[in-house]
Structures are given as structure tokens and as C-alpha cells.
Design a protein that fits this description.
heterodimer, A: alpha+beta, eight-stranded antiparallel beta sheet, six-stranded antiparallel beta sheet, 7 helices, about 30% helix, B: alpha/beta, TIM Barrel, 2 domains, eight-stranded parallel beta sheet, 10 strands, globular, disordered N terminus
Amino acid sequence: MKLHFYFLFNVMLFFTQVFLSTAQDVLPEMDGWKKSEQVQIYKPATLYEYINGAAELYLSYNFQELQVGEYQNEKNASIIVEVYRHQTTNDAFGIYSQERPTEGQFLNIGAQGYLDPPILNFLRKNIYVKISSYDIAENAEAILKSYAEKLAANLGGKSSLPIILQCFPEPGKIQNSEKFITRSFLGHGFLHSGFIADYVVDKEKIQLFIIEAADSSDCREMLSQYFQLCRNAPSDLKEGRFNISDPYHGEISLVWKGKYILGILNLKNKRLSTLYIEEITRLITKQINTKGS
Amino acid sequence: MANNTNDFSRRKFLATTVSGLSAMALFGLSNQTLSSPDQERKNQVSEKKIIYRTLGKTGISMPIVNMGVMNALDPALVKRSYEIGVRHFDTAAWYMRGKNEEMVGNVIKELKARDKVIIGTKIYIPHEQRNISAAEAKERYLKIAHESLKRLQTDYVDILYSHSINNIEWLNNPGIVEALQKLKKEGKARFIGFSTHSNMTACINEAIRTCVCDVILTVFNYALGEYPDYINALKNAAAKGIGLIAMKTQCSQYWYRQELPETMQKFYQGKILHTAVLKWVLRHDFITTAVPGYTNFQQMEEDFSVAYNLEYTEQEKKFLQDRNVKMSLGYCHQCQRCVPTCPKGVDIPTLMRTHMYATCYGNFYQAQDAIESIPDKKGLNQCTTCGSCQAKCSNQINISKRIDELKLIYA
């Protein structure tokens, strides 16, 4: 029986260690802690061996590689660090945003981090870092913060959250509620990815969203399908403002501008709806003008 | 010409077998289903009625298609699922750091439907952290379970799983067994069990022996149709009253598709794969329900359409009979056509079988048996990895990649 498990263990280790030799070790040393000699590397084909079915969501956010390292101190406390590399900043933000709380101890590490003992997670560009501690008796928060800062420095220091988040108007916004959905936005297969943020306006919970398409014709294609689903396709679809009756989400106010589709969910007050739509359109226009796109 | 002959032989073979025994395996029809009119009637329920089955000895009756919430990012999808008839929602503490449970909890609360739905959740300790004492495992399980209840906004879950069991030691860990039984005794979990993604046969057989589990959530799909040991284990578990819930039913995960060329990725697009393969799973009536992880309303409608009728359409039959479809779902059919293409005469089919046992199903005993059965001078060492592997698979399996992986396993 023991032989069986030894064999099993070794075979399971296979996929985790295949890519070890090429990994760049970004994990810093820590005084009083012994770093594991080997960093485990997982690729898209093997991620499920580490996080099981949860891998599917990471893969949908264009996961590229995971490095996992472990530290132990003399008192047998341990820290496990997971460094997920995604294809783009939006991808990494997307998976980070799915897991971050809206309230908590947020930190200025990388683009953003938060401490939720015994864990500390942070984001830097296309890298999402998850640090978990076990059995640290004293100063756990300080140890985690200190470690995260060193690691963030190794990864390149400060960065910023996706710039498009600045286009969400501030009034009424629930801080840290912004998310990036990588596919089937609003649950519709024909809508691609999009950003969405939660608001409390007029005592109602509403959501604002921004879909950034590849180009204007991509927007047209998505909207055509959307109107088809909702059976109120305009005869001549061109840029501008629309109202749509989504069978699953109810009334939605939309604006199509260039390669962007902007919208509001659940806001019944028409005056406020207009104000928000105008403001988000203004902010997007400003960003387009700044970026020159 | 030789290929044509082979094609003809294969067609002839398929023609004779598809109408007979192979058809049963292909379409999930056991001898019993073919010979039992009662069973056929059971599968031919009125188009307007959702088919329900009972989950083993739990007595829970539920639709045959439910929802794996794991990949759903929009609460409206969960809500709409309930509205169309889904009654079982499968989530886990591990998914999105508990956010997935929160979403389920919020939607069920909004719908005021707690007593109308079956909530299943799972407790996970990562594999590399499982070298802990039984006492610590118990403590962590209890803590995670209570956090889950809080996020789900409920006093109890209907099914509480130990998440991702792939070996008997962890399955039988006394701390975990005690924790699950304690939660069940306290009414915080109506039923307990485990989920398994690899080494399923051994784990399920052990569960049958120990009689601790009420429910098992296991991988079951078309690509596993040729594994009699596994299917027998499932049948035996069901016969013992263990409720069986199927996941990964549509082979749509990355690891099923990773080696496929663009031309074969097409089989993963559109409705047909989902309905045909889901029906294949559910026509095995030892499976109570499936929890496909759909991510949008269209997929939801397609998947749930199966809950009304398990009869294959002509199009679905044709799809499942398509050899390319079968291969695209990821397994070597042992056709032997690759053998002459290897200059070293390596027994590639057996190596492909070894690879499948080891990497897809975690059955390392069987992998060892397979590799040891290869005669001298035809084994793994004979393969010199000639720069670019010349061996060709007519069904698009990436032979050289799998052989490279085997070499690492057996290095």
C-alpha cells in the first residue's frame, strides 16, 4: 500500500514539476523563514491539478502560468504564495475582482491589494498574487505585508488598475465593486467581455457597465444580436442611445459610442438614468480623446 | 490504397458492431435498457414534463439536469435557472474565495426558495496542504463549513462534500470523517459525501466499502464510456444507495481540448455537443443528475432542454457516431494505424493507453500494468524521440507530446 502511494505521489508530482527548470524565481527571501527549494509551476494544461474545477474560471481569464512557493519558520508556521500570470492586465484584474471583497483592509501594494487574515492578495499588471499564512502566532499581518511588498518589488513595483475603471462615475459607486467579466457578459454568449460596477442610487441597487469591443463593427454585431434577442431591433442601427428590454435583466439604458457600449441596469428613475448615462459617456469620451483611440 | 482498405475495414467493423454491442456502449444503453420496456418508458417522458430522479437513499427527488454554479458570474443566471426548473445548485467554498457561495445565497434568499432547492457545497484543502494531522483536518473542515453556511445564508446545506478526493487515505481521514458526521448530526448538512476528479474508481469502491457517504459527485462523460471498471463502480455505488451526481459531463474543459487542432475544435461549438453528450451521461440511470457548468442563458436553455427528454435526435445520434467527434473528445481508439508510422516500431497504442490511465484517470496501477505488458524493444525506451516524432495518429492525438509526458513520469 505504501509503495502504491509513493508511486501515486511521484506521478502526481510529475505535472507540477515539469516546468520547474525554466521558472524565473521571483519569490524573495525572508529573514527567519526557509523558502522551499523548488517552486512548483503549473501551466494551463495542469492548473486543474492544483485548484481542481476552479481552474476553468482562471483559464477563461487567459491564465498563462502559476508559480507556487512555500516558506516555513522554526515554529512550523508556513506561508504559501501563489503567483498567477495572466495574458493581460484586464485578465488578471478580472480574476482578482471576482475574488476580492468590497470591504476590508485594502493596501497600496502593486496596483491594489487587501489583507484578510490569514491571507493577503494583490494585483500587479497581469500578475495576481495570493499569499496564505498558516499558524503564524505573532505579527501575522506585519509579516504578510512585509513579504507582499518585497514580492511586489520583485515583480516591478507599483502599477495601476485598468484605466477604464476611471470611467465609472463616482457618485453612488460601491467602492471595490468593479469587476471584469471575460465572456458571456450579462449572461449572453454573444456579448464578449465587459466591466461592471455596483451602485446604490436612490436607495436602489443598480449596475453600470462598459463593454469595450474590438472596434465599432464588433459593437454593431453584438448589439444586433442583442436587439434580435429582445425583439426590438431598430431599422437602422447606428451609434447613439437606446433602451432595451432584456428578458433576463429587465430594462437597460444603453449608449453605443465607437467601440464602446455603455449601460445601466435596474435604474427606474429616468432623470438619474439620463444623468448617469451622460456622465459615463463623458468619461469614456474623455478617455478616448486622451488615448487617441 | 492501404488507407482505403483500412478505412473500409473500419467502416465494416463499425457497421457490424454499432448495430450490436458497441451501440449499447456508444449510446449509454445497457442490456437492461434495451430489453426493458419499463426503462424505455422511463426515458421517454412527456416532452412537457421535467424528468426527476431520486438521489440514492437520501430520498431527495431532483431534476436530471441542474446547475454547477462554479463558472457562473451573473446572479441573473442562477435566478433564471431556478425559474426554468433547476432545483439543485452545486457550489464550493473554494470557488472565487467564497464569492460563488455568496451569490447562490443571495439569489436563493431573494427568491425565498431555500426550502425548494437543494444546495450542495464542498470543503477543500489543497492537495499539497494535506499532510496535516487528523485533528487539524477536522478543525479546518468545521471552520470552512461554518463559513460556507454564513455565506450561503442558511442553517444547513443539503449536501456537504469533501472536495476533490483522489486517494483513499484522504477519503478515510478520521478527522474529515468525524467533521462531516458531526455536521450531519448537528443538522448542518443533511447528507455528506465527496467529489472526485481522478482515481475515481478506487475512491468510489472504497466509499461503497465504508458506507460513510450518502452522495458522490464524480466526473462522468462520454470520454469515460470505455472504462468498464469505472462504470461498474458507479453501478455498484448506486445499487448500495449512494446518490451519484455527474460533473464535467460535456468534456468541455480545457484539458479535454488542449491537443485538438483548430479543425476539431468545431465539435465544441454549438448546441449539439452539449445536448448529445449530456443525454449520453443521463441515459445511464445510475446517475441521478448532472450539474453542467453553463455560463450563459443560451447554454442554460440548451442544457436544461435535456431534462425533458433523453431520446437522441437523429442529429445527435449521427454526431455521437462520428468518429472524429469521438476522437475529439480525447481518447485513443487503439486502431493501431500509428504503429507502422513509427520507425522504431514502438507499441504506441499501449503507450497511449498507459498515458490515459495515468494522466486522465489517475489509475496508476492500470498504467503500470499496461506499460509492463509491452514486449521488449517496443516500449518507451525504444522511442528515441526522433527530433520531430514521425508517428502519426489518424485521429489527431498528439502522440509525441503524450510520449514525452510518459517519459517524464517513468524517468
